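An instance noted here:
***
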Amino acid sequence: MSQALQNLINLIHLEKIEEGIYRGQSEDLGFPQVFGGQVIGQSLYAAKQTVADDRMIHSFHSYFLRPGDSHKPIVYDVEILRDGKSFSARRVSAIQNGHPIFYMTASFQGHEESFEHQNTMPLVPFPEELDPQEDIMKKMANSLPTKLKKVFSTPPLEMKLVPLQNLPNRSSQVPVRYVWFRSNGKMPEDPFIHHCLLGYASDFNFLPTALQPHDVKFMGENMQIATIDHSMWYHRPFNMDDWLLYSIESPSASGARGFVRGHIYNRAGVLIASAVQEGVIRKL
């Protein structure tokens, strides 16, 4: 396991203050506010501490209420909504400076066998056919904050963006993005740590897809970019150690809001998760 991956796993783990109350540290990635994926991953970890071992996350729905301060810890307050025969529901409040910055409602379920179908993974080059991450980051260097450049010089997650110009009938101006990603090193066996890290990773590359048709940069000057809400569904077991494909599209942007949705597949084409997000995309 790389040191960067170990640091991220340590970040996801929370300190228990009392029953249902946890505290997590924050990571400064150079964004104006705390990275949303961090709050998602930590909220999932907090919720799971109150749920039976045989029940795993199958969905969450969340709202980002206020910008978080990346230099201060976050307190997570877990409310037990229901423990039924098949499902458990939890509500998590992430609190800084006495105010909620984020709410999540999460649902957990034990394993069941039933009907199965899924859509087909897009036909894109496999990660071995793409440029190394170091080469990709050099091309993107001018658009990244200094701290984020440092993070990606030794990243906890490897990411490879599929160049759209290499695909049939695609250009960089369409609101579509394909990204391969995996953990940078061997993960712990606990499947829930994989779930938390997938929640963390799902916030990368998401909202920027809504900007692609408009020739503006995600980190550009005079731009306000902020997540409003983020929902995710976990469909099938997966392993963060191996490459996963994030297939993202933005069907709509209007009213200073961008809407994006994504499907995550393993390299065998199995659909493991889906996500939806809306965020502010506004020129100042």
